[in-house]
Structure prediction request, 256 residues.
Amino acid sequence: MALNNESVEYSTLPQQQQLYVSVVGHISGFTGNERQTVYSSSVTLFILLSLTLFAIIKYNFGNNLYVTFQAFFNYRQTKNMFNERRESDRQAVILSNILFSLVVGLFISIIFPFWGETPLWGSYALSIIFFSTVAGLLYYLKAIVWKALGTIFMLQSFSQLYVYNMHLVNRITGFVILPFVALIPYVVENIVPYLIYTVLIFFVISYFFKIFRIFQIINAQNVSILHFILYLCALEFLPLLLFVKSCKILSESIVI
Prediction:
């Protein structure tokens, strides 16, 4: 009987090990109460940097922050802010855009393990810096292209107003998702999927909100529907597809 018990133990041990290996680092593994993913201290430093930047924005531009949240839902309020731009508003916009880019870089980097991947170059710090820089540059270049096309087609007021709205939506997105992103490395892993999906859902909502805001601006300024379609294809859908494809190719090509 003792021999039979030993044979049973030896036969079940590989199955238990195989189950554990298949769970680690994948979405199907978010059922335990203990963390299996351990982040480096650089992730904590970048989260603290993001929270500090938010505190600076809140302390120095608290009134602007409140009005910005109002303008997110009210197109008329957004247009008033656009017409009454001040130097302090410009400073708040710059800091808020930096915060947005940093939060995007953090989010992309810290969810790599939950899809069975490793951070770029095996370093969370380099991965966060890379994706934050890419996100910031993409929106900066996108704003330049919007303004350039507005000048070419003599639609400067339309393009400038939308660029302002684009930055406004990005700022609100950064403010809203920051708490969820900051919690991901520290909560138990069965809660992590809800945080990730909440962030992704808000990204989708903010993206379609930008498209809706384009329609509002076009409707208010009597811009042709043809320009609306061209802008959407060239400056909204195509950059998004390129960004997603580039991230996928980059993550598959880099061998750690």
About this structure: The CA atoms of residues 43 and 62 lie 27 Å apart.
